[in-house]
Amino acid sequence: MYFDLCLNNNFLFQNLENFQVISELLTSAICDGYRILAVNINKKGILSNNDIAKELNFDIKSIFNSYSIKFLNSSSEDFNFFNFDDIKVLKRVTIEINETKELYQFSNPTPSLKSYDILSITPKNEKLFELACNDINVDIITINFDEKINFYLKKSLIQSAVSKNIFFEIIYNGFIVDNSKRAIFISNVLMLFEITKGKNLIISSGADNFIDHRSPYDINTL
To answer: Which of 12, 92, 171, 219 can bridge 118 by disulfide, Cβ–Cβ 3.0-4.6 Å?
Structure first.
């Protein structure tokens, strides 16, 4: 079973056009064989009461029937035998952390944090990365591998996070969209693979439209 735990949709489906974009993205991913999908909201700092996750009342079968005509050639599966009960859409938030005080929210999670199925953070400096690995309870640490990382990925810190069953995420969208980022992306990713030996690593798309999404087979080739 394949997972894509970062499908970006920062507009919370506020209008019909935006709902169509996320519906096409979900349908494309399902056609490519993904069965667990997470719709991600990007935030900065401390979540407020207004950031409580909205319910994702997707009728997956209805969405699939409406949009799959675009993607029927993207998978060799027989779509007539889909078990839509096996397809799950989760709620995720990725929080960019720039100051130590922004980490306190994870010590005593607020209703906003508790309303998401997956919590991910992006620490922006070495001290925050150290605290993220050692002292807080999140599901995923997301690092932007498309640019030079301004702190060293210490083996001891990463191993500490892995021992707490925290996952490190590699998002390929920036690499796919901008070929100029290829060298730095590959260099950074190889460094993480060297430390983790592949343990507790996940690869997510970070896509916000179906054009930038890739099948698991494309990712394996990549």
So the answer is: 92
